[in-house]
Amino acid sequence: MTMLCRALSCFTLLLALVCLMPHDILAHKEVSNAEARELLASPPDGLIILDIRTPDEFRAGHIPAAVNLDFFSPRFELKLAELPKNTPILLYCRSGNRSAQSLEYFEAAGLGPVYHLTRGFRQWQADGLPVDVPEAPDAADKAGRGATP
């Protein structure tokens, strides 16, 4: 019985310490669109905005200044390992599913702190937040720009 009480006491103490830790020490923090906007308005040094959707999804629109790293790429984990350690990352995908699945890779690679955009780009866009949509080269030609006379 005494051994069980000690074990429970140690577990309770450990749980309390983890709960009291500042968020930036934890592996990741779930953020809403409002929290992500605050983060982007006053970004920490070196913030990387990382979109892990497919390249086609990325080309259709993304958060301004985001870089793309395809979660489905066979080189995903290798590319993650190339990212700088101790650098804040705002992470997102389409709905929050892929990015949630990827969090274990970020932790294993020692990356972060990671700010996970919980509801993803779809909700970001639905809320009317800033989106970059690169103009397709052929669209400029069809509009008469860039066409040779």
TrEMBL record:
PROSITE patterns: RHODANESE_3 (PS50206)
Record flagged with keyword Ribosomal protein: no
UniProt cross-references to Gene3D superfamilies, sorted A to Z: Rhodanese-like domain
Domain Rhodanese: 43-133
Pfam families reported for this sequence: Rhodanese
Keyword flag Signal: yes
Protein known as: Rhodanese-like domain-containing protein
Signal peptide: 1-27
SUPFAM superfamilies in the cross-refs: Rhodanese/Cell cycle control phosphatase
Keyword vocabulary terms for this entry: Signal
